[in-house]
What we know:
By secondary structure, this protein is of the alpha/beta class. The chain contains eleven helices and 14 strands. It has helices at about 50-65, 75-80, 90-105, 135-145, 160-170, 225-235, 245-255, 270-280, 295-305, 325-335, 350-360, and strands at about 5-15, 25-35, 40-45, 110-115, 120-125, 150-155, 175-180, 205-210, 235-240, 260-265, 285-290, 315-320, 320-325, 345-350. An eight-stranded parallel beta barrel has the order 5-6-7-8-9-10-11-12, surrounded by four helices. Strands 3-2-1-13 form a four-stranded antiparallel beta sheet. A two-stranded antiparallel ribbon has the order 4-14.
Amino acid sequence: MIVKKLYLKQISTQLISGSIKGQGNLKKYVFLVLETSKGIGFSEIYCGTYRFIFLKKIVDYLTSELKEKEINKDLVLNNFLHQPFISGSGIVEIINSAFYNCYYMIEKNCNFYFKNNFNFKLYASGGTLSSSIDEIKNQIMFVNDNNLEALKIRLDYRDLKNSLDRIDLLSSSNCNFAIDLIYNTNYLNRLDFDLSNIIHNDKIDNLLWIEEPVFPSSAGIDWEKNISYIKEIGYDIALGESLSSITELQFLALYEYIDIIQLDVTHNSDYERLASFMDANEGKKKFGIHNWGSILGQIQNLNMLNTSKNIKNLWWELPLYSTKFDQELLEILNIHSNVELLEIKNLNLDSIINFLTNHEEKTHDDYKWF
């Protein structure tokens, strides 16, 4: 297999429904595309939404090194892309994993086969920081009307009243829910915030887990305070979606206070490594799949699960936003929703690859946290 082209594809697409703080009425997707003598493969890169220029510098370098070179699985997985002090975690490793996912797709002749023998617990992922209370009420109705397991909401500690209003609304409803705090952990003054202002020490029966209550890459530095407080109340803790290597994920598997490890093949690692990680830790931890990118990212996560040998029970995130790009993809797949996606038995990706590679490339500014 000879490398012909390696490049990043940016898609900026209109939000049809839902809202995402920091991106206006648009949603940004970034894909790595590998064109070879044998075919074309792609992989979504979730973090491309945040700092695209970091990715571009590394991909440009890889292109200069690999163009017209012959590659094989050993080269991709074990040698050139994985070097001490260079890869292992971070953006370099994310790109390495995306490169392998592209290679894997080509190796499979762009055909994915799905066993679909999983016990999915489907939860709606809405309640973004720009959602109103009325919008969250509608999301609660959606969860109940569609017999979903739960609704996940986002909170921002700098708006305490809004956070408490959301918790009061959901705790008094007949809807299970989870709380995502990752937005809070991006701020340097997070250590000055007392989590008990938002998460009171009286356990809420229908609050299933607290997600990302700590800065993901500061384990051993400032985790203890918040994690011990949450565990004393009795809530599960979910973490993992923002980590970028199997080594980091294995730490979570060994860390007794983490209950749910969240995985995403568009960020954490490649198909085979993530599947092997899940198989090795089945029965030791609960797993959840992070889906906050495109329909193509959800297809990739579904393929990762089907690469696993043992995994059966897990949470599956259903984003409540919809984009023009994703709606066009659903039409190509002849399905109506991302729930129907879980029913697909096999998928030839040729038409999807054609749609992606020929799609007009539009860009917009990186995600704004501040």
